[in-house]
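Researcher: Let's do a round of design. I'm pasting the C-alpha cells now; please hold your answer until I've finished.
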C-alpha cells in the first residue's frame, strides 16, 4: 500500500509539481539528470532539490564505499575542458569516521588500552585491520569535497542521536546546526555546534576502535562465507564475493579451495595466530566489505536440490531475521545471542548485481530479495572465540528453519478438495450415495464439506484426464488444525471418477504476475451455479469448460492488496451493486491469464484480435453481501462403495 500511494501521488507531489512549473517557466526542455547509487539512503531523493554531485561513502545497508576519486576527477575534467563546475557532497554518515584510520599516529608510544597483567593473554587480543586499498583511496578524497555528512551515533559509537555537516566554505555553517539540551548549555557557543563530531569524540582513540571493528567485521565475514559445506542442506552467501569469485567465470574448485584456506588460516585460529602468520594476515585483508557491515542471505536444499524460488528464500531469511531481532515489545535481550537486521534489495534498483547474487544463491526469478545485515558495533567479539559461539548459534537456528522449509516445500500425497455445491445430485452416481451425503449436510449445516484422498497419491496423478481415486468426506476447513491431527472421516470408501480438469495454475512465485491488476479485479468462474445476466453471448457449459474469467471494472486490486488472512477477511471486499461499477466476462481459453494486459474502455476490450463472441460484457448482478474468492476446480463424480 505505501508503495502504491507513492507511485499514484508522484505526479501531484510538491517536488514534482514545483519542478515541472520551473521547467515550464524557464523553457527547460532538457531537465538535469540525477545520478545516485542504487544503495542510496532514502534521504537522497528528498535532497535532489539541492543540485549537486553526490557520493555515498559508507552505505548503511551494505558498508560499501562509492568511487569518490572518480567523481572528483570528473569535476576537474569539466573545469578544464568546459569551464564548468559543480558542488560535491559526500554522504559519509557511516564511513566518515573511518577516515581517521588514514591519519598517521602521533610520535611516541600509543597505549592500546589493554588491562594491566593481560599483556600476555592472547585470547583478549583484538588487532587492528587496515582498510582495503579501494576504501583508503576514496576516503582520502573526502578532503576535496565541498560538504560532508557524518553521524557520530553510527561508526562514531556515540550512544545518543547526533549528526553533523562539514562545509568547506565556513559561511555555509549557519544553515544547519545541531543542538541538544543534554549536551549544550543555553547561551554558549561551541565549535561542537558546527563541527563533525557533535560532542567532539577523540579521533585518535576512535582510530584504534574502528581498526579493531574492521578486523572483527572481516573475521565474521569469514564465518559467513565458510559456514556451509557442499554436503549441508543449506547455503550462506555474503553479498561481497570472495577474491577468487571475482574471476569471470569463477572456478568452483578454486572457490572451495579458498574457503578451505579461510577456515584453516582465519576461522579456526585465535587472533594472535592470525596477525603472526603472513598468509593469514594477507588473506583477511583481501576479504569482507569496504567497512563494518556484512550483508548475506541464506537458501536451502531439498534432497540435494537447491531451492530456486526467490519467495521461499525470502521467507527463510524473514524467519531468521525474526529470530535474531526485536520484533515485539515482549521480547528481551536474554533471548537473543546477537542482533541482525534485514533489508530488501529491489531488482529494479540493483539490476545485474542482484541477478548475480541470486545466481550465487541458486535462485531464479526477477523478484526482490530479502537479505540479512550484520553490523559490527563492538570491536571485541573476537575475544575468547566468541564469534564462533555466535555463528554456531545462528547455524543451529538455520538448520531448524531448513527443516520447516523442507516440510513447507515438499509435495505431499495428501490432498483436500472443497465441495462447492453439494446439493447438485449429478455429482453422485447413485441415490444411496446422495442420501447419505445429504444426511451429513443436515447434521452439519454450517460446516464446509471437504473431500480427502484416502490413498497416497500425488496431485499430478489426480488431475489426469480419466483418472480416479479413493476418498472420504469430512467437515470443517482449518489447515492449522489439520497439521495437528488428521481429519475424521464422516463418509468413507468413496470412489471419485470421471475427473475433468477446468483450470490449473501453479502457486510457485515464478508463475506469479509481477504486479496486481491496476484497473480491475479478476475472478475465475468455475462452478455452474453462477448467476449472471449477459446481454451478449451465451454462457454455455462448453464455454464454461474452456474457462471464464469475470472482471470487475473500476475496482483496483492493486490498492486492496495484500488481503488479510482468509479467516480475517470478513467484509473487507465489498463488491459493487448492479447500479455501481460494471463487469465483463472474458474467455480464459483466449486470454490465458486473468491479469493479462488488455485495453478496456466502457467495459469493452479495445483492439482485441479475436471475434467478439469470445468475450461478453454486462452490468454486475450479484448479492453485494457476498464475498468472492479465486479458486481452481475439479469436476468429479462420487460413488460410495
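Researcher: That's everything. Go ahead.
Model: Designed sequence:
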Amino acid at each position: 500500500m505505501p508503495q502504491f500511494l507513492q507511485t499514484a501521488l508522484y505526479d501531484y507531489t510538491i517536488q514534482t509539481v514545483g519542478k515541472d512549473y520551473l521547467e515550464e517557466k524557464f523553457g527547460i526542455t532538457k531537465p538535469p539528470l540525477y545520478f545516485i547509487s542504487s544503495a542510496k539512503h532514502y534521504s537522497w531523493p528528498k535532497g535532489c532539490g539541492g543540485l549537486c554531485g553526490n557520493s555515498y561513502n559508507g552505505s548503511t545497508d551494505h558498508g560499501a564505499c562509492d568511487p569518490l576519486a572518480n567523481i572528483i576527477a570528473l569535476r576537474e575534467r569539466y573545469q578544464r575542458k568546459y569551464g564548468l563546475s559543480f558542488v560535491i557532497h559526500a554522504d559519509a554518515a557511516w564511513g566518515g569516521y573511518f577516515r581517521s584510520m588514514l591519519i598517521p599516529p602521533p610520535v611516541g608510544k600509543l597505549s592500546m588500552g589493554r588491562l594491566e597483567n593481560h599483556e600476555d593473554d592472547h585470547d583478549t587480543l583484538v588487532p587492528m585491520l587496515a582498510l582495503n586499498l579501494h576504501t583508503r583511496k576514496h576516503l582520502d578524497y573526502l578532503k576535496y569535497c565541498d560538504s560532508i555528512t557524518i553521524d557520530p551515533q553510527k561508526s562514531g559509537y556515540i550512544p545518543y542521536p547526533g549528526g553533523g555537516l562539514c562545509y568547506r566554505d565556513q559561511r555555509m555553517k549557519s544553515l544547519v546546526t545541531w543542538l541538544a539540551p543534554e549536551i549544550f548549555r543555553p547561551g554558549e557557543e561551541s565549535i561542537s555546534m558546527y563541527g563533525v563530531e557533535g560532542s567532539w569524540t577523540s579521533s585518535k582513540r576512535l582510530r584504534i576502535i574502528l581498526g579493531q571493528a574492521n578486523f572483527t567485521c572481516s573475521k565474521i565475514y569469514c564465518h559467513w562465507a565458510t559456514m556451509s559445506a557442499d554436503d549441508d542442506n543449506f547455503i550462506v552467501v555474503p553479498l561481497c564475493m570472495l577474491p577468487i569469485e571475482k574471476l569471470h567465470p569463477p572456478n568452483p574448485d578454486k572457490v572451495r579451495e579458498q574457503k578451505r584456506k579461510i577456515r584453516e588460516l582465519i576461522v579456526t585460529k585465535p587472533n594472535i595466530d592470525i596477525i603472526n602468520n603472513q598468509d593469514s594476515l594477507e588473506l583477511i585483508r583481501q576479504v569482507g566489505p569496504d567497512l563494518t557491515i556484512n550483508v548475506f542471505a541464506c537458501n536451502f536444499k531439498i534432497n540435494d536440490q537447491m531451492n530456486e524460488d526467490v519467495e521461499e528464500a525470502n521467507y527463510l531469511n524473514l524467519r531468521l531475521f525474526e529470530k535474531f531481532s526485536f520484533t515485539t515489545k515482549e521480547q528481551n535481550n536474554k533471548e537473543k545471542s546477537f542482533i541482525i537486521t534485514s533489508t530488501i534489495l529491489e531488482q529494479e534498483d540493483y539490476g545485474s548485481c542482484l541477478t548475480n547474487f541470486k545466481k550465487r544463491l541458486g535462485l531464479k526469478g526477477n523478484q526482490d530479495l530479502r537479505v540479512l545485515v550484520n553490523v559490527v558495533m563492538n570491536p571485541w567479539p573476537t575475544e575468547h572465540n566468541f564469534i564462533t559461539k555466535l555463528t554456531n548459534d545462528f547455524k543451529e537456528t538455520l538448520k531448524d528453519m531448513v527443516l520447516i522449509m523442507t516440510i513447507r516445500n515438499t509435495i505431499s500425497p495428501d490432498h483436500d478438495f472443497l465441495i462447492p455445491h453439494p446439493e447438485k445430485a449429478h455429482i453422485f452416481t447413485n441415490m444411496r450415495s446422495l442420501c447419505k451425503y445429504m444426511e451429513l449436510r443436515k447434521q452439519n449445516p454450517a460446516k464446509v464439506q471437504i473431500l480427502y484422498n484416502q490413498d497416497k497419491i500425488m496431485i499430478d496423478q489426480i488431475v489426469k484426464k480419466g483418472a480416479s481415486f479413493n476418498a472420504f468426506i469430512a467437515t470443517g476447513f482449518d489447515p492449522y488444525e489439520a497439521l495437528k491431527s488428521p481429519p475424521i472421516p464422516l463418509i468413507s470408501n468413496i470412489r471419485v471418477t470421471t475427473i475433468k480438469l477446468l483450470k490449473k495454475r501453479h502457486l510457485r512465485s515464478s508463475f506469479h504476475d509481477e504486479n496486481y491488476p491496476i484497473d480491475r479485479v479478476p475472478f475465475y468462474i468455475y462452478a455452474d451455479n453462477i448467476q449472471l445476466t449477459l446481454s451478449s453471448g451465451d454462457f454455455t457449459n462448453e464455454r464454461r469448460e474452456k474457462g471464464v474469467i469475470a472482471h470487475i471494472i473500476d475496482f483496483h486490486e492493486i490498492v486492496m492488496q495484500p488481503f488479510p488472512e482468509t479467516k480475517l477477511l470478513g467484509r473487507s471486499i465489498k463488491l459493487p451493486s448492479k447500479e455501481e461499477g460494471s463487469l465483463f466476462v472474458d474467455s480464459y481459453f483466449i486470454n490465458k491469464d486473468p491479469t493479462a494486459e488488455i485495453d478496456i474502455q466502457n467495459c469493452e476490450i479495445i483492439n482485441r484480435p479475436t471475434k467478439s463472441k469470445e468475450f461478453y460484457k454486462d452490468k454486475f448482478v450479484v448479492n453485494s453481501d457476498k464475498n468472492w474468492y479465486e479458486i481452481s476446480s475439479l469436476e468429479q463424480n462420487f460413488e460410495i462403495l
